[in-house]
Amino acid sequence: xxxxxxxxxxxxxxxxxxxxxxxxxxxxxxxxxxxxxxxxxxxxxxxxxxxxxxxxxxxxxxxxxxxxxxxxxxxxxxxxxxxxxxxxxxxxxxxxxxxxxxxxxxxxxxxxxxxxxxxxxxxxxxxxxxxxxxxxxxxxxxxxxxxxxxxxxxxxxxxxxxxxxxxxxxxxxxxxxxxxxxxxxxxxxxxxxxxxxxxxxxxxxxxxxxxxxxxxxxxxxxxxxxxxxxxxxxxxxxxxxxxxxxxxxxxxxxxxxxxxxxxxxxxxx
Length: 269
Known about the structure:
Layout: H1 2-40, E1 44-45, H2 46-49, E2 64-71, E3 77-79, E4 89-98, E5 103-112, E6 131-138, H3 145-148, E7 154-155, H4 160-163, E8 171-182, H5 202-235, H6 259-267
Parallel strand pairs: 1-2, 3-7, 5-8
Antiparallel strand pairs: 2-4, 2-6, 3-4, 4-5, 6-8
């Protein structure tokens, strides 16, 4: 019964972990549905989806928007520690000042780094003059102040809220992953790829935890059945102490004085 209590606790824990994994799978599945819908939607003007006072709603992320203005190369930044295909690099973020006044941060893409991606290097110049861009809406990074606060022309994560005090114009919250620009920059960085729509391993982990719960109860059931059968045979007399093979060692002959000499005389022909 004590073992049954332990098995019940372990089984209940496994079932709860299974439910948690299935819940995570459903959340990711719902999120992927929103992403697919936004990717397929028609491009919208940047001012219709982004604001200078509030972060975009999470259900608008990955929606494509368009904006026209000029790049502010003097305030572009490097986002450090950006790895692609195992290669260290940086992302190039440049504010695009729109004709309406506010600017939108544009992640123009990735470029390999000379070191391990922890140093600012010469950033490629953006296109000059009036530029029309399209890009996917991304939410501000939730990193700590040390990651999003600019230092010597670089950050470790993008946050319009953290960059706003260092820029001389209003800034839309969030940023864009560049997908297209007209005209094209002279040496454009590599653009970001499509978002991952993989649902993750949570669905299989959910079944794995259920299997562990069944394994615990199956072990206890086998153990209980074995004990029950042994007790039943014992009660019917099928199993007795005499029927069990003896494990006792043979009795030793008590030692007495002169015993060794008597053995030697007996052994002498």
